């Protein structure tokens, strides 16, 4: 791969603290394999990760500024040991400041949260990617007004970080209706996933961004995402992708009964 530009990805992050749940290993094997493949494709090229998490909403685009972030156990009903796990990756305050400055320089408000810990949208995929927990990591919030155009714009402003060996990851879930995360969600999830694949894989960048801005017009859009918190990290990733070639890097037809996908842009050969 090029030494000057890293890919950017949107990842479906699965449920809760799944990497710490051996009983779920078979269920999560395809997702785990896709994340390990991503690690292999960028091995030795990444100096830090900027991860946009669906589980942090703020009034402005926020960036985690702690040197040693703590843990946020933002889930319920999981085994007791999953409320004691740690993912001890270092923060990177200088990257948080740089990212906030890039966003603010483009006319969008941004801030730094010096106390923000890692939520499961972050530590679930990062445990699969870097179980050594040695990769410097900064979280980015979504904005609670859920404006897709603003999230696309933020991604465009952050794109220069890709040329500085920063891996930008959006972490959400391509289908996120917890009441229909079962066979009842099969048809609507496939309808929305088909639109998502067509939009991301087969549309020119300008058309892609237009379609993402009007995502509510997609088939079964509001069934797939009653709240679009898990979709907005995709907007940031797509904004940062620019004109780079897209690739579907993970897909299941029946993840808990529904279709789920992850995508990358500018991916090195696998």
Structure description:
This protein has a six-stranded mixed sheet with strand order 5-2-6-1-8-7, with helices on both faces. Strands 3-4 form a two-stranded parallel sheet. It is built from eight helices and eight strands; from the N terminus they run βαββαβαβαβααααββ. It has a single domain (8-265), classed as LigB-like (Protocatechuate 4,5-dioxygenase, Chain B), CATH 3.40.830.10. It has 270 residues and is α/β, with parallel strands linked by helices. Helix 4 (148-158) packs across helix 8 (232-241).
Q: Distance between the terminal alpha carbons, to the nearest Å?
A: 10 Å
Shape: globular
Rg:
17 Å
Strand portion: 15-25%
What's the total number of strands?
8
The total domain count is: 1
Count of DSSP-assigned helices: 8
Main beta-sheet annotation? 6 strands, mixed
CATH architectural group = 3-Layer(aba) Sandwich
Low-confidence stretches: none
| The level-1 CATH class | Alpha Beta
CATH superfamily, called what? LigB-like
The residue fraction in helices comes out at 25-40%
Write the layout of secondary structure elements.
Blueprint: E1 8-12, H1 29-42, E2 48-58, E3 61-64, H2 93-105, E4 110-113, H3 120-129, E5 137-143, H4 148-158, E6 166-172, H5 186-202, H6 205-213, H7 221-224, H8 232-241, E7 246-255, E8 258-265
Parallel strand pairs: 1-6, 2-5, 2-6, 3-4
Antiparallel strand pairs: 1-8, 7-8
